[in-house]
Amino acid sequence: MNSRIAHVAFNTFREAVRDRVLYNLIAFAVLLSGAAILVGQISIDIERLVVVNLGLTAVTLFGVVIAIFIGIGLVSKEIEKRTLYTVLSRPVRRWEFVVGKFLGLTGTLLVNTFFMGVAVFLALWYVAHHLERGDLSITAALYFIVLQFLIVCALALLFSSFSSPLLSAVFTFALFVIGSLSEDLRGFAAATKGIAGAVASIVAYLVPNFSAMNVVNQVAHGETVAGQLILYNTLYALLYSTMAISGAVLIFQRRNLK
Amino acid sequence: MAAIETINLAKTYAVGFWRKKPRTALLPLNLTIETGEIFGFLGPNGAGKTTTLKLLTGIVFPTSGTARILGKDVDDPVVKAQIGFLPEQPYFYDHLTARELLQYYGQLSGMPAKDLSSRVEKMLGRVGLADAAHTQLRKFSKGMLQRVGLAQAILHDPRLVFLDEPMSGLDPIGRREVRELIQQLKQEGKTVFFSTHILSDAEALCDRVGVIHQGQLRGVGAVADLTSQVHGKVEMIFTAGSVPAGLTSLGAEARVSGNMVSVVLPEENQEAALEVLRRERLRLTSLTPVRTSLEEYYMQNLQPAGKSMGVGA
Amino acid sequence: MKSSRLSLVASVMLLLSLVGTVATLRTLDGLRRDATLKEVLYIHSPKALKRMSLGYSGLVADLYWTRAVQYFGSRHIAQASDFHLLSPLLEITTALDPKLTVAYQFGSNFLAPAPPNGAGEPDKAVSLVEHGIQNNPDNWKLYYALGFIYYMDLKDYRKAGEAFQRGADVPKAHPFLRLLAAQMAQHAGEYRMSRMLWTATYETTTQEQIRRNAVDHLRALRVDEDVTQLEKLVATYRERTGRLPLTFGDLVRAGLIGGVPADPTGQPYKLMPDGRIEVRYPDTLLYITKGTPAGYMPPRPKADPADSGKK
């Protein structure tokens, strides 16, 4: 059982890499270098701030886009193109397939984020000429970004287990945007009375809590990230992903493939 | 124990988003396939052939009824290890090479690692892709993809092989190779279940055939039986410019093509007809008994339900 | 069947992780109280933020406006003593959307007064509203807001009058601006001015908190007037009869009042033995300056435990 999941995961990773997804790193590197050089020229006293803010935001956005497009392409495309027929007629169980895809996808993003993180640190070193202790918290911010990817991948798989590629992409991206404002949403829901408030609360609790994982501003100002926050965010990401993947498994389990 | 057994296996799709209009793809099917036979599933497009195959390979779930393979339920992973499936117009992971694809599929089928590599090479050779083993699948032609499809279907040495239109996309050489492969599979003791709408292939390969139309099984029979029924007629082909007068009175149906005439008449009038030819000094080219063709059986069974003749297996 | 067992397992996992997710979420929210609000402190340049909004600055302004309202509202209820984030929140809101009138009104009502009723920063309130006037010179409501701050919290009646005058000159201005400007000279500091202002505030906005605040003030004015009036009648009674009335019934029989008087919340006033009038439940009436027992202290503003006290 475990080896089949590992094989699916590895194949997913290989397929993504060969599909030249990692080329996005080049675009990212170009963007970041350009910004770093520009900022370095202007010498506006907030070079570190700009590089960290811009760098981490770009890592997040690039990653989310990749997660969505690969994630959805992986399952929906396979269903459409009937690649799955020859896979599912083999002893691999459907749930193993879903979990394997998830692991392969997050693995790809992990590798991608690692390289991007290195690029951010290089850009930072370039503009600031030295790295400080406070910069270690950038690693924490990167870790939180990876947690966000975990959830986005799980959601992408969940939607593509029953929806068309386009709709899945739209839903997942919408949830990303809403989730980034989820703390505000909960505040708003708490202040609203009646049925609207109850509905808003339910939605606000179900939407992924990306806002707690966004510490870019903090980290740009050199502040440390609380250990408790790291712990609970990790727990949250794992639980939420489990929820989404369980849903994907349930749906995919009984899905008739056209 | 039958290789494949279906009991009232049926599938209805709910089509449409709001008003669920049901579409019956397969009416309750009762079919038994014995181990070691080559069974051909015949029918026009949209008859339900692919649906049946998908039901038997666990890709689609039945609305009612059951299907058993080697006595076990279709969803059982033990069963999955014993079947191979080639879908219609297959499509695979674009960026893998043929070798990598087979390696991956072998892993998923649970083949032990040490045997896998050699087996993959052997399969590639068997389907004639040894030279293209390291080429990425996105560069493969339709015929090459069909061969890869065959390779992955038999890679793990399954006891049953399901093929959906295995000849599609192949040139005459390719088709002959596939025919030979299927016959080899039978010699290896495997059961082959394939769907096609090309009757000559079915006639050449199959032990038994079933005809399906509009979701309903119209008839099942052994090919030998179906084509051995002699009409009691003979066909004579001879060189002549026109049909000799004496033959028409013998109940002959004639066709003239250039200087060749083909005449079909009842067997008992055979000697009389030969007399006519001798008298007219016409040269006889061939004299053969007329058999029911599979085509006739097929066409009969495509009639609206009620007029079909099902011959028990 | 294998499949249904898997479905069961997956369903259970889904339910359990759902529960876990919600629980963890609540803990996270607890850890990160006010975190979104504290983000405000990192924004050195509202202009940069506006540029980063890529044309959606109106939407971002709405977001910050919502945060400002909730920030103030939740602390006000908790009777906190520190509202130091209110000013940055409103500044950013109005920088992103200079035409958001209600934000300026909110500032004039709640930035200026002292805690727990406001942030206690009248100067910031003034510059906020002045910024609004710069961007919306034809919006009479903003001149009103400015005059309001000067009158209520800075007690600078001259400047208040000037602001109202400026506003009165704006086309389509509400007529009471001219009235207020005119009355300022003679009646500044009187009840009637206050009542006019609070009534005007109530009518120029639909924002819930501002309106409720105005109502509370109007009620307080009512109570102050009632108490003054009633105590005068008690004095009149004493002059006539030589002694203090024992109950309101005495005053009724003396023909001084029609019935037992009640405060704006519907509670009857209390006639104390020493002739003073008191409100029955002083804690329910905010802002009253009369009718409270001797030594009465309004409920103290509470320090919010999540406050780090930093500015």
Task: Give a short overview.
Helices cover 80% and strands 0% of the residues of chain A. By secondary structure, chain A is mainly α. The two termini of chain A are 27 Å apart.
End-to-end C-alpha gap of chain A: 27 Å
Number of helices of chain B: 11
Report the helical percentage of chain B: 25-40%
Q: Looking at the structure, what is the overall shape of chain A?
A: globular
Rounded to an integer in angstroms, the radius of gyration calculated over CA atoms of chain B is 24 Å
Mean pLDDT of chain B: 85
Major sheet size, sense and barrel closure of chain B: 6 strands, mixed
Strand coverage percent of chain B = 25-35%
What does the main sheet of chain A amount to?
A: none
CATH domain topology of the largest domain in chain B: Rossmann fold
**How many domains of chain A, as an integer?**
1
Percent helix of chain A, as a range, is over 70%
Radius of gyration of chain A: 20 Å
What is the beta-strand fraction of chain A? under 5%
Query: What is the number of strand segments of chain A?
Result: 0
The overall pLDDT average of chain A reads 87
Tell me what the CATH architecture of the largest domain in chain B is: 3-Layer(aba) Sandwich
Give the number of domains of chain B. 2
Q: For the record, what is the CATH homologous superfamily label of the largest domain in chain B? A: P-loop containing nucleotide triphosphate hydrolases
Number of strands of chain B: 14
Descriptive account of the structure:
The complex is a heterotrimer of chains A (258), B (313) and C (311). Helix content of chain A is 80%, strand content 0%. With 258 residues, chain A is mostly helical. Chain B folds into two domains: 4-226, Rossmann fold; 230-291, 2-Layer Sandwich (Alpha-Beta Plaits), CATH 3.30.70. Helix content of chain B is 33%, strand content 31%. Chain B has helices at 49-56, 77-80, 98-108, 113-126, 142-154, 172-187, 199-205, 223-228, 245-248, 270-280, 294-301; strands spanning 4-15, 21-33, 38-42, 64-69, 72-73, 83-86, 160-164, 191-196, 208-213, 216-222, 230-239, 253-257, 260-266, 283-291. Chain C has 311 residues and is mainly α. Chain C has helices at 2-31, 35-38, 46-52, 57-77, 86-96, 101-110, 122-135, 140-152, 157-168, 176-187, 191-203, 208-241, 248-253; strands at 270-271, 277-278. Chain C has a two-stranded antiparallel sheet with strand order 1-2. The longest helix of chain C has 34 residues, at 208-241. Chain C is flat. Chains in contact: A-B, A-C, B-C. The interface between A and B is medium-sized, with 25 and 37 residues.
